[in-house]
Design goal:
304 residues, alpha+beta, Pseudouridine synthase, 3 domains, nine-stranded mixed β-sheet, 20 strands, 34% strand, globular, TruB_C, EC 5.4.99.25, tRNA processing, tRNA_psdUridine_synth_TruB
Length: 304
């Protein structure tokens, strides 16, 4: 069994918990997830099976989309609803739709984020949440991420109340913290804020419509039909540039040969999928750093 099984991750489980449970259901060891989702976050978690574990990083590196809810009026230690309240400011003046839309527009594009203390980012060999649990605050690296779009999912013209909540949909690059984005929205509006709900609705090519729950996976495994729900690894690579090669070149690729870069890929930066005429992915190549005009394999996916 190999390919991608898009799981609908339930609330309360870590990504590692999900892999552990699937190993028991599917009775196989070679399973990996494609990027950590916080326990309280639900939604799309593509699971790699068998040979597809080789390409997990390319799903992780692809764009993501989420639907979330931000609460304006108080912030928490974890930047989501599970943390302790650390700052509070009553919303005394109604906030107009235009003002919220202006803030969302301002936060679209490339922005700088500082990862929350309760996150898996490593500093000096330890994950930030390990420091946070010990009550230690450390300097965190600021990173640039890209917000491709933010859409307000609320049709109100005026937002009023001691606290204000509204939902939004965001498409973003890898490494984006939506919790931190919610805090930034609040800061731009002049209030402490946190993310009160979040669901991932897309990861790379996989959407909510592709996902199965644990119960559905158990049922289909028992019925012997689970293979029908497993997507080929090529689906997970659909966002990458392709180079279709002939059988002669395919033999060299399977043996990890260094190749000349075709003209149409000269300006491409990052991974390139080498595939057969029938669309079967054989390897992932990248430009050779020491040998201009050549490319080398970083992952050979099929050598049989």
């Amino acid at each position: 069994m190999e390919g991608i099984l898009p799981l609908y991750k339930p609330k309360g489980m870590t990504s590692h918990d999900c892999v552990f449970k699937l190993r028991k259901i599917l009775k196989m060891k070679k399973i990996g997830h494609t990027g950590t989702l916080d326990p309280d976050v639900t939604g799309v978690l593509p699971i790699c099976l068998g040979r597809a574990t080789k390409i997990a990083e390319y799903i992780t590196d692809a764009g993501k989309a989420y639907e979330g809810e931000v609460t304006i009026g108080y912030s928490t230690s974890t930047e989501d609803f599970s943390g302790e309240i650390i700052d509070k400011k009553e919303v005394k003046q109604p906030i107009s739709r235009e003002k919220i839309l202006a803030v969302l527009a301002k936060l679209t594009g490339e922005i700088s984020q500082t990862p929350p203390m309760y996150s898996a980012v490593k500093v000096n060999g330890k994950r930030l949440y390990e420091y946070a649990r010990q009550g230690i605050t450390v300097e965190r690296p600021t990173r640039n991420v890209t917000i491709y779009s933010i859409e307000l999912l609320d049709d109100r013209d005026i937002f009023a109340g001691e606290t204000i909540q509204f939902r939004f949909r965001v498409a973003c690059s890898k490494g984006t913290y939506i919790r931190t984005l919610a805090v930034m929205i609040g800061e731009e509006l002049g209030y402490p804020a946190h993310m009160s709900n979040l669901e991932r609705i897309q990861s790379a090519a996989f959407t909510l419509q592709d996902c199965l729950t644990f119960e559905e996976i158990e049922n289909r495994t028992g019925q012997g039909t689970i293979s029908e729900s497993i997507h080929p690894l090529e689906t997970a690579l659909s966002h990458l540039p392709k180079y279709t090669i002939n059988d002669t070149l395919a033999k060299k690729v399977k043996n990890g040969a260094v190749l000349q870069i075709p003209d149409f890929l000269i300006k491409v930066k990052g991974p390139i999928v080498l595939e057969t005429d029938s669309g079967l992915a054989l390897a992932i190549y990248e430009h050779h750093q020491q040998k201009p005009g050549l490319m080398k394999p970083v992952k050979v996916l099929r050598n049989d």
